[in-house]
């Protein structure tokens, strides 16, 4: 995308102004849309003096972030949970698993010669079953390529040479991380994708959720989707983040608290001083796994961290929105993060929460670090930190799968803090890990039998992925313990599920 800092700069100024207004207004001040000669603005205003009912006119309904985004996308002044509305879609993403089905439905319903509603708002990213000899998997990518050439799709991240991913300059890797890195995630917008973890993009203060192939085929032709407005559950995370915790621990703790159905068709909004302190990749981890709680979408209010990340990544103006002070939430949860401990999710459910130290007798066969949830640059830096602190070698095979080409390059080029200039790759090699693989979804979804690190036998694996259902990473009798990169690395060093404090404290 064309590089530009204008959108981020304007949004940053608007966010700062919003904070000033919030500080000046008497509590509890209700935020209102304010007028400003700028295409990027935060939705906020100073408190207004009450008026007599006869002179009030139309009354603005206080809304949550998710309600505001959907209201704007449907050109409605206000929305309430449970309403069904047609929304204008800003970005539609699909990949090699669901893309062919989506394309088939589009052609069936709109005609063989039909054109997509906007060639610049469709993003197609092959990433799931890429580095395999499976002919059907390879054919899926061919179908995407043919369609993108036919439709002149602007953002198709193609791969042709499977023997050397670096020979494919357009190839990115895992769709959810690539969407962020390529500037397709913007505050206040609606992003839909044919993948349940599309909710990852909510970290940018946008409405992002997964949809099925039929809905996606309709969006391809019209740019619209029919959505039911979800109620919002607010999660306030406050307190200083302990040096042995990561966002993966936070979301596993939350899912363990509310269960895999605790947020069914709800928006999960994350706020609080801890969330504000997280970088964008850690915020993505939080939002990525809301679907594991049944959530419709996850969302984090955009702030300076968001705007800085977006600098140079997008030339599209965007308008962040924020929940009103008097917005109605379905329920509120509050957590003192400073008191939490490293956790894992035991087989076979993401809500089967246990403290890592309670599982110290669980012998494991392997460790897997990768996926949209746990294969970002910050995840590998975290794992390298544990290996560096221990100075030891791993006791079980440890597989590393960077999410994207950019992450792969970071693994080989970024110095790990406190290492004297060593990169993650150097530390991984010294620790006896497997050489970092080509960027893709890898074994997170199992895939064809020749997929790198797939569990083709019943094994016990500690993984930074997002699901541990039977057969998720391959063999139906495999056991997967979901964990943070800290816990995964610590477990690799001992051969048992291990609390990372054994190496970091």
From TrEMBL:
InterPro entries per record: Acnase/IPM_dHydase_lsu_aba_1/3, Acoase/IPM_deHydtase_lsu_aba, Aconitase_4Fe-4S_dom, Homoacnase/IPMdehydase_lsu, IPM_dehydratase_rel_enz, IPMI_cat
Q: Keyword 4Fe-4S, does the record have it?
A: yes
CDD domains recorded for this chain? Answer: IPMI
| Gene Ontology MF terms | 4 iron, 4 sulfur cluster binding; lyase activity; metal ion binding
Keyword Iron belongs to the record: yes
Where's the Aconitase/3-isopropylmalate dehydratase large subunit alpha/beta/alpha domain? 80-495
A Pfam family per the record: Aconitase
Reading the lineage from the top rank, the first entry is: Eukaryota
The entry's keywords: 4Fe-4S, Iron, Iron-sulfur, Lyase, Metal-binding
Which GO BP terms sit in this record?
Answer: oxoacid metabolic process
Q: Which NCBIfam families match?
A: hacA_fam, PRK00402.1
Q: What is the protein's name according to its record?
A: Aconitase/3-isopropylmalate dehydratase large subunit alpha/beta/alpha domain-containing protein
